[in-house]
């Protein structure tokens, strides 16, 4: 009996350490990916601010807004991911401080990409009117519209939370997720409706701009063909970003087939829905652009060139 008890305790201890090591590995993976992506994105923002030529081009303004949006989204999402492992539950007030920026920036991304596609379409289809339609002032107005649309999507949920929930709930601890905080049935239905509306509007915009560019590309040069490929890349990026819209039912479906793999399912869906789309932005948009890539290399390679400079001195 003593041997059986010892074996049982050893098995429990071994399983605990396996779970602990696995959890640490997941968090380290997410943090390393987040730091790497944010470093590249921060370098892009530094490049944009350093060279005035980019501040006069609506395309680069929209792109750098997307990059800044990705930094905020990735930082808040990773913080929520780590807190879910470290504390499991946190106070509702602290959860709101983290989850609201994450929701705002998640909603912003497909809208920003849709406007980037529209700008690309204008530059190809009506180039003579491009300088009149796409100005720096109007670009910043578009960015304001993006944030306003996202606000209209999430602020009603916040007002419902403050009006319906008791003060005890606001002071309680919950698993920090959108459904755990905004528990009203109206909020859940409105979330699904807004996700569907966003997805339809962005998809229609990308399809329309692609068809317009495809029509022009029949008798066009390489720049127009590049614009056509850019719209396809926009579509792929939106597809990655909008996977977060189907995340709740997808997790339920996967848990139904793999009931013991909830932790692994949450980790996989988090990386696919939250991290990978932010990894794609700097590669898809920043490195494909010859002008931006030329200036970006100077700063990305600054760390690698530093030892050479020290040795030569």
Automatic annotation (TrEMBL):
Gene Ontology cellular-component terms listed: membrane
Keywords: Membrane, Transmembrane, Transmembrane helix
SUPFAM superfamilies membership: Family A G protein-coupled receptor-like (SSF81321)
CDD domains: 7tm_classA_rhodopsin-like
Superkingdom of source: Eukaryota
Transmembrane intervals: 80-104, 110-128, 140-164, 197-217, 229-247, 267-287
Name the UniProt record assigns to this protein: Olfactory receptor 52E8-like
Source organism (scientific name): Maylandia zebra
